[in-house]
From TrEMBL:
Membership in a protein family: Belongs to the UPP synthase family.
Name of the gene this protein is made from: uppS
PROSITE patterns per UniProt: UPP_SYNTHASE (PS01066)
Identification of the protein by name: Ditrans,polycis-undecaprenyl-diphosphate synthase ((2E,6E)-farnesyl-diphosphate specific)
One GO MF term attached to the UniProt entry: magnesium ion binding
Active-site residues from the entry: 21, 69
Organism of provenance: Pseudomonas mosselii
C-alpha cells in the first residue's frame, strides 16, 4: 500500500475534476452485475468529498454520466438513472448539512422529467451552502459544452448585441457550463485509462493530469490525498520557463 502523503500548504488545487472510471470492471472482477460497481462507487464519492473539504478545495467536479454513455446497455442505463435519482434525494440534505453546494451541468433535456425535477430540488436545497461546490457532470460532453457556448454567442451576434470580433477566448469561456467557476487545476482519472474522454475539453487546457490504476470504488481517502500530494509536487508553468516561474515566486 502506498504511504499517505500530505499536500504542502498553499499547493492545494482550487478546482479538482475527476473521471470516475472502473465501476464495471470492479464489479466484473467480483463476479457481480455492473450496477453493483456503480453503487460501490458512491462510497468513493463520499470519501473524495471528505478529503476535498478537509483540504479546502473550492470546487469538485465529478464526471457521472457522459453524453456517450447512453450507448451502454439499456438495463445499465436504467439502473444508473435510478441510482442517480435515489442519490440526489438521499444526499442533498447531507450535503446541505455539511455546507456543500450541489450543481449539475450537462444537457438535462434527455432525462426523465421526474429526474430533472429531483436535480432542481437538490440544487435548491443546497443553494445557500458555501463551504465548497460539488459539481456533477450528467449527460455532459466537452464538445457539447463548447457548441452550446458558441450557440449562445451566435444568438447575441444575430440579435445585434455583439460583433463577431468581440468574441474572445475569455468571453467564450464565460458561456461554458462552468463559466463562473475557476478552471480545473487537477484532473484525476481512475481505472488505468489514459485519456480525458470528452470531459471539460476547454477547461482542462492547463490542468495537471493524474492517472490512477485503482478502479473508482477503491479510490478512497488515501488515494485522494496521494493525488493532492502529487499535484503539490508539480511546477505549473503555463507556457513560461522554470526560471521565470521561480523568479516570480521569489518576487
Amino acid at each position: 500500500m502506498e504511504k499517505t502523503k500530505l499536500a504542502a500548504p498553499g499547493s492545494v488545487p482550487r478546482h479538482v475534476a475527476i473521471i470516475m472510471d472502473g465501476n464495471n470492471r470492479w464489479a466484473k472482477k467480483r463476479l457481480l452485475p455492473g450496477v453493483a460497481g456503480h453503487k460501490a462507487g458512491v462510497d468513493a464519492v463520499r470519501a473524495v468529498i471528505e478529503v476535498c473539504a478537509e483540504a479546502k478545495v473550492e470546487v469538485l467536479t465529478l464526471f457521472a454520466f457522459s453524453s456517450e454513455n447512453w450507448q451502454r446497455p439499456a438495463e445499465e442505463v436504467g439502473a444508473l438513472m435510478e441510482l442517480f435519482f435515489s442519490a440526489l434525494r438521499r444526499e442533498a440534505r447531507r450535503l446541505n448539512e455539511n455546507n456543500i453546494a450541489l450543481r449539475i451541468i450537462g444537457d438535462r433535456s434527455r432525462f426523465h422529467p421526474e429526474l430533472q425535477a429531483a436535480m432542481r430540488e437538490a440544487e435548491a436545497v443546497t443553494a445557500g451552502s458555501n463551504r465548497f461546490i460539488l459539481q456533477i457532470a450528467a449527460n455532459y460532453g466537452g464538445q457539447w459544452d463548447i457548441a452550446q457556448a458558441a450557440q449562445r454567442l451566435a444568438r447575441e451576434v444575430q440579435a445585434g448585441h455583439l460583433r463577431p470580433d468581440d468574441i474572445t477566448p475569455q468571453l467564450l469561456q464565460t458561456c461554458l457550463a462552468t463559466g463562473d467557476l475557476p478552471l480545473p487545476d487537477l484532473c484525476i482519472r481512475t481505472g488505468g485509462e489514459r485519456r480525458i474522454s470528452n470531459f471539460l475539453l476547454w477547461q482542462l487546457a492547463y490542468a495537471e493530469l493524474y492517472f490512477s490504476d485503482l478502479y473508482w470504488p477503491d479510490f478512497k481517502h488515501e488515494a485522494m490525498r496521494n493525488a493532492l500530494a502529487d499535484f503539490a509536487s508539480r511546477q505549473r508553468r503555463f507556457g513560461k520557463t522554470s526560471e521565470q516561474v521561480e523568479a516570480g515566486a521569489r518576487a
